[in-house]
Design a protein that fits this description.
The chain is mainly beta. It is built from 13 helices and 51 strands. The chain folds into two domains: 81 residues, Carboxypeptidase-like, regulatory domain (Immunoglobulin-like), CATH 2.60.40; 834 residues, Maltoporin, Chain A. The radius of gyration is 31 Å and the shape is globular.
């Protein structure tokens, strides 16, 4: 009997324990919505706090999660929204949770190393970010760099002109190099991509300008902006040190869109628009009397006869007056299941320019795949094929060979010349300029064709995963390959060609292969006293190879455009190969989100250094104090008060070819050989190299404070920095030609960049009928020459003679100085750097279904040398030459080049867009319909008197800014948009 009781007791206890276990497991369900739109949010992370258990919401924002125990806390997070914690128990069901936008970006995750990231609220650096909505949500961006205008603090953007396809310079925190690249390093999904500018050979038509002045596009313009999920910009050495010798000018990290688990989503967007000129420089309105006083009496008679026939034209409007039609079509498909996610995008942009026979086309295909091979191993692929074509027309600063439309329009094409072809198709010669600008527009060819493939791959392997310890192996890399073709044709009937080379063809082939890989071990350890440790240790490798061939011919057989149909040939080839290897270590200690410290170092060696096997160290250190997270903080309205300090170093190796003295072909007694090239001033081929060169280095101290008020509805960031760039490498051309060389490579140049960056984010109004987000940004930078071993000089290839003005380097002055010869004395006449810049970005939602977005951009100061006006003054066609003050004080005769320095300040409406989200009764098939209109650069307020105060004649890579020479005018754009979601 006792045994029976014992067994019954055990059975009872077993049943009770089963019932208790069942009672201690419960399920919570619910939906998560946007607090303003009340629409479900897909992809929200719901994690049971203190465990690794979690789920994400479906396409409608719904979720179900099983919880062990009697109660728990749910941590809810989503990119762009403030995180929340919700307490739940066995009686909790059908939760409805509203999430508010993270205006102060407290929850935003940003990169702090090659394999790790961190919440912005814990960050010790000022890293600018742009999300997909800010990048392309307002209006269509033709190119990636062009879409960034005015959206990043600490970033200066300028263009060499408005020709379709872009040629844009992006500069982070001032000047980083004198002869090297001032453009940042661009990384797309872990792949280091090329951003070189292709030369097309048009400079050779007369030998009158450098390849950088040809107006070709730079290759980051190939990337489709619609593919991008987010952009993070590491502006200075304190943030970019972990990227080593490629990061002296900063780093732009681009993350493309990827698929997520859930229902497959299809988005189709169709945009229609047109280009129109942003601003005319204007043409002088002649009378018979002013024609005679400017030219002579015989020209007056020609003018009067043309006027009687009604054959007086405005050639500026004739050339640049087209309304170029634009279409942009984009189809994306994304989705996936628990193991495999995908994102596919196909896009096609076709853009006509503001001048006939100019335009830009880009076709882009992207496929991103992510697959969980096992529970511990994930692999991701990013594949992108691009074909881009640009018909740029006869643009650029080609001044003696009659190629450039703009140059010949200014110097000098008069509006009573009849330059149109006769009934036989024969164009008359220009009587004043070196070319007939209508002939150039109609018959000169200047084309570019790029086929590009970018492949990235990433492996993520979890070696060890415990409650307080994780060890992962992360490896990623890829390749960037493109084949670029350029073609330039000047017919043999061109008036300058008839007198010289009887036609000109230049055909270029540019092969570029860049590949990289990196592998890291990443350790995360969580102690029992609210301290977390993170470490990453790894290697990085980069190889860059290029083969650029330019074949040219003259003495053309009439009407032929084939290289083989000429009678005088020349071919040049430039082969480059660069190789870099780095060792990286970085550690981070986080005490309860109160104090966060980071220490890191990178050791790099490069084939571009004098000793290719010598490692150079690039350290970094930072600390952030989240004061509002300490227990003593008692001000509830301020939920973030952080002070931060950071230090870092980056580098930049010498430009390829700087280490050695190049040799050229020669012949002695009919026997071929190699010798020093013929000396020509500023000719890089006659350069005296230096095989002892070491990298330029940047040393930056950054400090600042961040605030967030009223639960993140207001955020304020303040940053100041001092960046010293040491041992800048540059070619010095002021050496005696009797030395046998045109220039020598030196590195005795230091400069200091100092600056301030301020950003204010706010959500002043929040309710279902009206919501307003606004961001106000301010930034300034000054770059001063600290040390210069050669006194002062005009940089090679960074301007014209001091008669007409040039960039100029003088110790104690800014590195962006403009100078001219006044009375035999080299005089600083201006500074191309702005005094400061501001932007004001706004997003408004009203009446539930309307969205209004606009971006204003202010640039205060920044002098521009307006050589367009100088040329048109020489030609007598400047609009204000009849002004009494100008007649009494001619600009060039009175002040030389200094008479053409103008203030480049402006206020510009960069973007504005109004959209309507059409309410749908039945969402079985069509999930969303959005229509809208937008504009880009549609209003500019400035006193600058030429085409655009942002343009510069010398391309995106070098030092020069603020020199304008008859560019292809910038355009403003208007769009109509239709977006469908299935």
């Amino acid at each position: 009997m006792r045994e029976v009781y014992r067994k019954l007791t055990m059975l009872t206890l077993l049943l009770l324990s089963v019932q208790l276990a069942v009672a201690q497991e419960f399920t919570v369900s619910g939906v998560i919505k946007d607090a303003v739109t009340n629409e479900g949010l897909s992809g929200v992370n719901i994690l049971v706090k203190g465990t690794t258990s979690g789920v994400i919401t479906d396409i409608d924002g719904k979720f179900n999660i099983a919880i062990q125990g009697q109660q728990a806390t749910l941590s809810i997070s989503f990119i762009g929204y403030l995180s929340q914690e919700i307490d739940v128990n066995g009686t909790t069901e059908n939760l409805e949770i509203s999430m508010t936008e993270d205006i102060a970006n407290l929850e935003e995750v940003v990169v702090t190393g090659l394999a790790t990231n961190i919440k912005r609220s814990n960050l010790a650096n000022n890293i600018s970010t742009v999300d997909a909505k800010s990048l392309t949500g307002t209006t269509t961006g033709a190119t990636l760099d062009g879409a960034l205008y005015g959206k990043l603090t600490g970033v200066n953007i300028s263009a060499a002109g408005g020709a379709p396809g872009g040629q844009t310079a992006v500069r982070l925190r001032g000047i980083s190099s004198l002869s090297g690249n001032n453009q940042p390093l661009f990384i797309v999904d872990g792949v280091y991509i090329s951003n070189i500018q292709l030369t097309n050979g048009s400079a050779v038509a007369s030998g009158a300008n450098a390849g950088r002045e040809e107006g070709g596009s730079n290759r980051v313009s190939d990337i489709n902006p619609d593919d991008i999920e987010s952009i993070e910009v590491l502006k200075g050495a304190s943030a970019a040190a972990i990227y080593g010798t490629r990061a002296n000018a900063g780093v732009v990290i681009i993350t493309t869109k990827r698929g997520s688990e859930g229902k497959t989503t299809i988005n189709f967007n169709q945009d229609f628009g047109f280009n129109t000129i942003q601003n005319y420089a204007g043409r002088r309105q002649f009378t018979a009397a002013t024609v005679e006083s400017t030219f002579d009496a015989s020209e007056r008679a020609i003018f009067e006869a043309a006027r009687e026939r009604g054959r007086i034209f405005n050639y500026e409007e004739e050339l640049y007056g087209e309304k170029g039609f634009i279409t942009d079509s984009r189809l994306s498909i994304s989705g996936g299941k628990d193991k495999t996610k995908f994102y596919f995008n196909a896009s096609r942009r076709d853009e006509d320019g503001i001048m006939k026979r100019t335009g830009y086309e880009r076709t882009s295909l992207r496929l991103n795949l992510d697959h969980d091979i096992t529970d511990n191993l994930t692999i991701g692929f990013s594949s992108n094929y691009i074909n881009s074509k640009a018909a740029r027309g006869p643009v650029g600063n080609e001044n003696n060979g009659g190629f450039s439309v703009g140059y010949n329009l200014a110097l000098v094409t008069v509006d009573w010349e009849d330059l149109f072809p006769d009934e036989n198709g024969v164009y008359p010669d220009g009587r004043f300029a070196a070319a007939n600008v209508i002939f150039n527009r109609d018959l000169i060819v200047n084309d570019e064709d790029i086929n590009r493939y970018i492949q990235g791959v990433k492996l993520d392997y979890s070696i060890l995963k415990q409650d307080n310890l994780q060890l992962k192996l992360i490896a990623n890399g890829g390749l960037d390959f493109f084949l670029g073709k350029t073609f330039v044709y000047m017919p043999e009937t061109h008036q300058t060609q008839r007198a010289t080379t009887n036609g000109f063809i230049s055909s270029g082939r540019n092969n570029s292969l860049q590949y990289n890989y990196q592998a890291f071990a990443v350790i995360d350890y969580f102690t029992g006293n609210n301290i977390s440790l993170n470490g990453q240790f790894g290697v990085s490798y980069l190889n860059f190879e290029s083969d650029a061939t330019l074949s040219q011919t003259t003495q053309l057989i009439p009407t032929q455009t084939n290289l083989a149909q000429g009678n005088s040939f020349s071919t040049s080839q430039r082969l480059t190969e660069e190789e870099e290897f780095g060792l990286i270590a970085q550690g981070q200690v986080n005490w309860d989100d109160k104090i966060i410290t980071t220490l890191g170092i990178r050791f790099d060696k490069s084939s571009l250094n004098g000793d290719p096997n010598k490692y150079f160290a690039f350290p970094r250190a930072s600390i952030a104090f989240n004061i509002a997270n300490f227990d003593f903080w008692t001000i509830p309205s301020i939920n973030l008060f952080k002070v931060r300090f950071a230090y870092g170093e980056t580098g930049s190796s010498a430009r390829f070819g700087s280490l050695f003295t190049p040799l050229g072909p020669t012949s002695v007694g009919g026997i071929p050989g190699l010798a020093l090239p013929t000396v020509a001033q500023n000719n890089v081929s006659a350069q005296l190299g230096d095989d002892r060169l070491e990298p330029e280095t940047s040393q930056e101290i950054e400090f600042g404070a961040d605030f967030a008020f009223l639960e993140g509805r207001i955020g304020l960031e303040f940053t100041a920095y001092i960046r010293d760039v040491k041992n800048l490498i540059y070619p010095f051309s002021s050496i005696p030609l009797s030395s046998g060389f045109a220039n020598s490579i030196r590195s005795d140049f230091d400069l200091r960049n100092t600056g301030i960056e301020i950003a204010l984010n706010a959500n002043p109004v929040v309710n279902p009928n009206f919501n307003w987000n606004t961001t106000l940004s301010y930034w300034q930078n000054e770059a001063k020459v600290d040390r210069l071993g050669v006194g002062e000089f005009q940089p090679s290839g960074e301007g014209f003679s001091l008669t007409f003005g040039s960039s100029f380097i003088r110790e104690g002055e800014t590195a962006t100085s403009l100078a001219a010869n006044i009375g035999g004395v080299t005089t600083i006449i201006g500074d191309a750097a702005p005094d400061f810049q501001m932007s004001w970005y706004n997003q408004l939602t009203f009446l539930k279904n309307f969205d209004l977005t606009f971006l204003w951009h202010l640039k205060e100061g920044g002098d521009v040398l307006n050589l367009t006006k100088l040329l048109s003054d020489f030609g007598g066609v400047t609009p204000d030459l009849d002004n009494a003050d100008v007649i009494a004080n001619p600009r060039f005769a009175t002040s030389g080049a200094a008479g053409y320095i103008e203030d480049g300040s402006y206020i510009r409406l960069r973007e504005v867009g109004l959209y309507y989200n059409v309410p749908l009764v039945n969402k079985n098939i069509l999930q969303g319909l959005r229509i809208g209109v937008s504009g880009k650069n549609i209003l500019t307020i400035t006193d600058y008197t030429s085409y655009d105060p942002e343009t510069s004649a010398f391309g995106p890579s070098g030092l020069s800014q603020g020199i304008e020479v008859a560019p292809f005018p910038s355009a403003k754009q208007y769009y109509f948009h239709v977006g469908l979601r299935f």
